[in-house]
User: Fold this.
Amino acid sequence: MTALPYAVDAETPLREAELETLRTQYEKEGEMAGIQTKFNYAWGLIKSNARSDQQLGVRLLSEIFRVSPDRRRECLYYLALANYKLGNYGEARRYNDLLLDKEPANHQAADLRRLIDDKVTKEGLMGVAIISGVAIAAGVVGGILFRGKRR
Assistant:
């Protein structure tokens, strides 16, 4: 599988000092925070390994998506990427498909779609294995109990 520059980049968190710089700038601007400042901070949050940071990044990107039509393309991709990292594969696919509808030749979005599909397939197979294991265990326990009552 080919590596996604941005997907791989998102897996590498910023150093704490770098994220703190983005946070400080965002907080300094407060309610008047510019779109670029907010986007940079959201990007840094998405790169974080902390789930709460990633969730805040999604909220900030969602706000940018609503108020800034010229940033929607970027927001769609990063919302898809963030939701992928959070394990929200349905949301990740929804955002990514919106981007692919607008840009069918977008290689990064196409590669992200494959990553999402692979993860869904892998987790689906794992779920089937777990359910099968539980069913087998229940059958064994039921058989033991049934044999115990017959004696």
